[in-house]
Amino acid sequence: MSLDLKYTYTEKKDTRSGFGDGFLEAGRKNPNVVGLCADLIGSLKMGDFQKEFPDRFFQTGIAEANMIGLAAGMALGGKIPFAGTFANFATGRVYDQIRQSVAYSDKNVKICASHAGLTLGEDGATHQILEDLGMMKMLPHMTVINPCDYNQTKAATLAIAEFEGPVYLRFGRPSWPIFTPANQKFEIGKAWKMIDGKDVTIFATGHLVWEAVVAEAMLREEGIHAEVINVHTIKPLDTEAILDSVKKTGCAVSAEEHQLNGGLGDSIAQTLIRHNPAPLEYVGVNDSFGESGTPTQLLEKYGLNAENIVKAAKRALARK
Amino acid sequence: MKKQSLPELQKICSQLRRDVLRMVHAVQSGHPGAPLGCAEYFVALYFDQLHHNPDFQMNGKGEDLFFLSNGHLSAGWYSVLARSGYFPVAELKTFRKLNSRLQGHPATHEHLPGIRIASGSLGQGLSVALGVAQTKKLDKDPSIVHVLMGDGELQEGQVWEAAMYAAHYGMDNVIATVDYNGQQIDGPTEKIMDLKNLKAKWEAFGWEVIETKEGNDLAAVLAGLEKAKSLTGKGKPILNLLYTEMGYGVDFMVGTHKWHGSPPNDEQLSLALGQLEETDGDY
């Protein structure tokens, strides 16, 4: 690729490993950090923590509802439980348990959700949840975080351990470019302007932040200067960053590995409609389930890659 | 709290039943049947069994804890909490009303002392109790965690996930009691979804099961809880099958599901109160 990228990478790694490494470090820092997992310790990369702190780790078996209740009980007893499973089972399967025992009861539980979105790949639509951000952001008290690469996921994991309150942390399976700095400071609720621009703002979250970085370089080749903002915290949303940027650029694109209904784009639209109506184009899955395939194939087929972000940016610009 | 004699505790049961009936009558909503049946259990726990501190601390460190999984028994729980000093008895009159701490189903949101988790959506309390019990084990805190579930509630799958966990991890600091009244909102449990042999089921899941056959006899309830306590610390979780009668204490309410979620009218209330002595002052 001969694109002049503003961020580059030398290594790819899965975001779930960022979680696993952050979780271990959080456990070393604070003896109150405990772990739970519903028979996916290897997939969630929770094994190092389990090995180092066997007394503070609880294999729950394939019983996610019970795991959420256990975590709520541990939290009220003063622990900081990290409950891990696939994003599908961490949300849809246990929505009521999270709603009543965690969110409504305001328990300091960290719901750690891997294998989110289409980029789970070959396992197909049963496992590719695309509704989780919407479900979680609707819950009062819930903080919702979707970091973009290994380094950011590790930093986010360390940050939520020090944050008091229920958190939904979403990450994924595929090997993905590591393009943000190691040991970065992660500020919950603060969007990160990664690239300055003046023509259009791209608000991206999770894996699609990388696609946004690529899209920015593609747009720049055509003389379009996009601003790229990494919205790692879906809730609380950094409305100030959104409004400041769109005030300057006058139009925007949202990009997420999620349904359009209920996702980041909806939250941004709400903000713009209330304060500064401006053209907004969405990149996301349009009311559809996924299917088996490689992550790259799926992002292409469902219209979520850099090329689609470029097209959406041009549509937004044309509406200015 | 100083231990009270059996007759003194019996008087509190009568007052609790009056509270429950007056609370649900005042708002013409709520669930009188099951808390009437669990009056002896509530009083035995809060006035005799639990080592607890009404100066409420959420984390409950060093205290015995109680969780109400079948949250619709809220009126009974609120009464026993108030009568044992967690909050003013007068506050019972706000039950289910706007801006009250006494929500229809128990909640932590309004910071009512004594409540540590919301309940109402059934099947979740045992998991929560096990979580905090696990925390107590980690912290070398020898106190006991109690949880009450309805028998109909056992139809929820999460209960059996939790049952498996408890035996696997040897949660011998947990005493789960099942309000075995044989009734649920749509009718008798054996018609709605037969629970079959509960004792055998829990034993098969690896629990130590005791049966308290006279769940509305205070002495029997106390003896059952004592026995349960004596079985803690032996590697197995303990299940107390508490045979109660829904609506116990009021002749026209007893033994039927009809009063599960229906309040008495004025006439029925006065009839019912006539059968229950006012012993500790109505709120």
What report would you give on this structure?
The complex is a heterodimer of chains A (320) and B (283). With 320 residues, chain A is α/β, with parallel strands linked by helices. Chain A folds into 2 domains: 13-177, Thiamin diphosphate (ThDP)-binding fold, Pyr/PP domains (Rossmann fold); 192-318, Rossmann fold (3-Layer(aba) Sandwich). Chain A has helices spanning 15-29, 41-44, 47-52, 64-76, 87-91, 95-104, 132-138, 150-161, 208-221, 239-249, 264-275, 295-301, 306-318, and strands at residues 12-14, 33-37, 57-59, 80-86, 110-114, 143-145, 167-170, 175-177, 192-195, 200-204, 226-230, 233-235, 252-259, 280-285. In chain A, the strands form 3 sheets. Chain A has a 7-stranded mixed sheet, with helices on both faces. A 5-stranded mixed sheet of chain A has the order 9-11-10-13-14, sandwiched between helices. In chain A, strands 1-8 form a two-stranded antiparallel ribbon. In chain A, helix 1 packs parallel to helix 8, helix 4 (64-76) runs parallel beside helix 6 and helix 10 crosses helix 11. Chain A is globular. The mean pLDDT of chain A is 98. Chain B has a 5-stranded parallel sheet, with helices on both faces. Chain B has a two-stranded antiparallel ribbon with strand order 4-5. The relative contact order of chain B is 0.18. Chain B has helices at residues 6-27, 33-37, 39-49, 74-83, 125-138, 157-168, 189-192, 198-204, 218-230, 266-273; strands spanning 65-68, 145-150, 174-180, 183-184, 187-188, 208-212, 238-243. The mean pLDDT of chain B is 97. Chain B is built from 10 helices and 7 strands. Chain B starts with 5 loop residues before the first helix and ends in a 10-residue tail after the last helix. In chain B, helix 1 (6-27) crosses helix 3 (39-49) and helix 3 runs parallel beside helix 4 (74-83). Chain B is globular and about 50 Å long. The longest helix of chain B is centred in the N-terminal third of the chain and has 22 residues, at 6-27. Chain B has a single domain (6-273), classed as 3-Layer(aba) Sandwich (Rossmann fold), CATH 3.40.50.970. With 283 residues, chain B is α/β, with parallel strands linked by helices. Chain A binds chain B through residues 34, 55-56, 58, 60-61, 63, 65-79, 81, 96-97, 99-101, 104-107, and chain B through 58-61, 107-109, 116-121, 123-136, 138-139, 157-158, 161-162, 164-165, 168-169.
